[in-house]
């Protein structure tokens, strides 16, 4: 018996394979779930010890093209009337190849224009 996979079947298989690959990679461009988020604004972003710019920085700033591992959000300082949402991150990857393992807070409007927050990222139950 000969089995022929139709165009719809091939497309469904390709979509399933790509979905599994994306989930396994764990990299995102900001979504409703926590995970690696690529900085997409023109601002540099400080990683602070609390959700305010007066807190000390815990590691080097990150810039457009770098990634932060976003876990959740919390309300904090409102900078220049752009909102008061901050993301809690626990790792940073710089496009230069440097990887940081510092935990801290980044200002959401400067990270991804608050996209992860607006699309359902969970609120932190600490901080």
From TrEMBL:
Keywords assigned by UniProt, alphabetized: Signal
PROSITE patterns documented for this protein: TAT
Leader sequence residues: 1-24
Protein name: SH3 domain-containing protein
Provenance organism: Streptomyces cirratus
Classification of source organism: Bacteria, Bacillati, Actinomycetota, Actinomycetes, Kitasatosporales
